[in-house]
């Protein structure tokens, strides 16, 4: 189970026939976050002619909103939205700000410009895949630590916490489909002396 989004925040700009277009993208997890981001960008660019936006939230693009913000209908918000949908990106809000340069671009020119503004913003944010992973913990002796810490990444795992007391405690993320094969390998290399325990699930960036 996985979905595509952006890593965090992206910003980029370009000029088209004397109009400046600035694209902003941000990862969001709710409509409230998306609206806050849009309002933040609007307040930054109160002098801009247009702050057009779109956002997509949830699995299967459950929430979709867009605005042309004064541009001719269908020339800004929908093209921004389509960029996210074509790239499979969700949980993302994009604002493309335009400072009008005095030259009209026409309907096709506007669609291309706002699509490009959205694309460069998404690319600046960095497209990533998020997968539902298990949170796993295990305890081992110090003489087993080196071997086990090396085995976890081989199964797509990512150690996020290590504790060193009278033994070594490891906490790590592991793809759900790798858990069974990992536990078999763990039993083999430790002769059954170390057991892994699932302590939860979390969305994490895929390796």
Task: Give the SSE layout.
Elements: E1 2-6, E2 9-16, E3 19-27, H1 31-44, E4 50-57, E5 63-67, H2 77-87, E6 92-99, H3 106-125, E7 127-140, H4 142-154, E8 158-164, E9 168-175, H5 179-190, E10 197-205
Description:
This protein is α+β, with helices and mostly antiparallel strands and 207 residues long. Helix content is 34%, strand content 39%. Strand 8 and strand 9 form a beta hairpin. The mean pLDDT is 93.
Summarize the model shown.
The chain is of the alpha+beta class and 207 residues long. 34% of the residues lie in helices and 39% in strands. The strands form 2 sheets. Strands 1, 7, 8, 9 and 10 form a 5-stranded antiparallel sheet that branches.
Summary tags:
207 residues; alpha+beta; five-stranded antiparallel β-sheet
Overall morphology: elongated
Mean pLDDT: 93
Beta-strand percentage range: 35-45%
Q: How many strands? A: 10
Q: Could you tell me how far the N terminus lies from the C terminus, measured between alpha carbons in angstroms?
A: 14 Å
Q: Give the ordered list of helices and strands.
A: EEEHEEHEHEHEEHE
* Model regions low in confidence, pLDDT < 50 over at least 5 residues: none
Structural class: alpha+beta
Helix residue percentage: 25-40%
Number of helices: 5
Biggest sheet character? 5 strands, antiparallel
Radius of gyration: 23 Å
């Amino acid at each position: 189970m996985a979905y595509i989004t952006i890593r965090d925040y992206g910003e980029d700009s370009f000029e088209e026939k004397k109009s400046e277009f600035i694209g902003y993208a941000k990862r969001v997890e709710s409509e409230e976050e998306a609206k806050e981001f849009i309002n933040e960008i609007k307040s930054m660019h109160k002098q801009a002619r247009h702050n057009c936006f779109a956002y997509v939230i949830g699995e299967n693009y459950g929430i979709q909103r867009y605005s042309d913000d004064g541009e001719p209908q269908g020339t800004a918000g929908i093209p921004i939205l389509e960029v996210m949908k074509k790239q499979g990106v969700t949980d993302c809000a994009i604002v493309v700000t335009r400072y009008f340069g005095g030259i009209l671009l026409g309907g096709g020119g506007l669609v291309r410009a706002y699509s490009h503004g959205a694309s460069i913003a998404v690319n600046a944010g960095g497209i990533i895949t998020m997968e539902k992973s298990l949170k796993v913990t295990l305890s081992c002796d110090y003489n087993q630590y080196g071997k086990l810490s090396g085995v976890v990444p081989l199964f797509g795992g990512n150690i996020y916490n290590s504790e060193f007391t009278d033994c070594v405690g490891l906490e790590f993320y592991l793809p759900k489909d790798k858990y069974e094969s990992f536990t078999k390998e763990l039993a083999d290399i430790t002769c059954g002396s170390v057991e892994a325990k699932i302590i939860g699930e979390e969305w994490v960036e895929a390796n």
